[in-house]
Specification:
- This protein is an all-alpha fold and 335 residues long.
- The protein folds into 2 domains: 260 residues, no CATH class; 66 residues, 2-Layer Sandwich (Alpha-Beta Plaits).
- Helix content is 61%, strand content 3%.
- The chain has 16 helices and 2 strands.
- A two-stranded antiparallel ribbon has the order 1-2.
- The longest helix has 39 residues.
- The protein is globular and about 65 Å long.
- The termini are far apart.
- The structure holds iron/sulfur cluster (2 copies).
Length: 335
């Protein structure tokens, strides 16, 4: 009984952490918007320092920087936090599955909320016809393959080195901001369609389209944490599979090894049998405390990003004068 109470508390804790992180991202976004406005106004609007965490929204640039770093031994100084955050998130998936998707990612939080709204409106989330679902799920892996091919294989080192020196890369964070603050009608339609589909089909973006999630899914099977079912305690009720947002057949497996499992713990929360279903380490028989998995996941992220900050691998090398020159040019820059 106590175990079940702590499972419920973990469910609530996950919601609090997800929303806390989302609010933090919104604060970072607003602060960055104010930073940009200062330069766009020619210095008239008040100055706010640039929050380096905004680099977390540049995962493709991070991949390009890592390739250049490995080739030259020098980390590109324009967006070092992009690399730090990217590696921290990959580290999370290596140790604690796709925990970033289910515990921190703001898009994942909004996607879950849209799914919940769908259940309120229609009494359930719809499911896509299984064969079509399988085809659609491959899209995110194809998108990931596309980016990996372009950046890691097709782009020569010299071209990459040149790109990482361009004004476009220097203010790619500003371009990203403009995607939302100066939204084109096409972007609005795309976001509207994705929001609508996420209300109808739970986790539509994450399940079918997110290449970041696809990458984390491919590294997550290496995680020692896995959902494990004790067949001697399981009654076969199927509540776990019904609760799984990734639509995994949890009630039918001893261990969940699927790259689609994001470590949300919804299945363990839904299980009515004590200790029948746990997020466990290796083949360990004794159940682990339910809090261990999220603590490991969040620690990896905190230690990774903290290491970036204390080693001074965080703030951009661009200074006030650089931004004064570059930001007003942003609308006219293309790569
Ligand atoms: S198997 Fe469990 S932890 Fe994994 S996605 Fe499904 S509900 Fe979440
Ligand atoms: S919810 Fe628990 S008891 Fe029911 S099938 Fe899943 S593991 Fe077994």
């Amino acid at each position: 009984m106590n175990e079940h109470r702590s499972d419920k508390r973990i469910g609530m804790l996950r919601t609090w952490i997800q929303w806390g992180f989302l609010v933090w991202m919104v604060v970072i976004g607003i602060r960055f918007g104010l930073f940009v406005r200062h330069f766009e106004s020619g210095g008239v609007a008040p100055f706010f320092s640039r929050p380096a965490g905004v680099d977390g929204f540049l995962p493709i640039g991070a991949l390009a920087s890592i390739k250049s770093w490995l080739a030259t031994g020098v980390l590109n100084p324009l967006h070092p936090a992009a690399v730090v955050i990217f590696l921290s998130i990959v580290g999370m998936s290596l140790l604690a599955k796709k925990s970033f998707c289910s515990w921190l990612c703001p898009v994942g939080t909004l996607s879950e909320t849209a799914g919940r709204l769908g259940r309120r409106l229609f009494g359930r989330n719809f499911r896509i016809w299984r064969p079509l679902d399988l085809v659609l799920r491959s899209i995110k892996y194809l998108l990931l393959l596309f980016f990996i091919k372009i950046i890691l294989f097709d782009m020569p080192h010299q071209a990459l080195a040149l790109f990482l020196k361009t004004p476009y890369w220097a203010i790619s964070d500003v371009k990203m901001l403009h995607l939302f603050t100066r939204m084109s009608s096409t972007t609005m339609v795309v976001l509207g369609v994705l929001a609508g589909l996420s209300i109808l089909y739970e986790g539509f973006w994450c399940r079918y389209l997110c290449p970041y999630g696809a990458l984390l899914g491919l590294t997550s099977p290496l995680s020692p944490f896995k959902i494990r079912r004790d067949t001697t305690l399981c009654s076969g009720c199927g509540s776990c599979s019904a609760a799984c947002p990734a639509q995994l057949p949890v009630h039918d497996r001893h261990v969940i090894r699927s790259p689609e499992c994001n470590g949300c713990l919804s299945c363990t929360l839904a299980c009515p049998e004590k200790d029948a279903l746990r997020m466990g380490l290796f083949q360990r028989k004794r159940p682990l405390p339910v809090w261990l998995f999220p603590v490991v996941a969040l620690l990896v992220f905190a230690v990774g990003t903290g290491a970036g900050i204390v080693t001074d691998t965080w703030q951009s090398s661009l200074g006030y004068d650089d931004y004064s020159y570059l930001i007003p040019q942003a609308p006219f820059l293309s790569h």
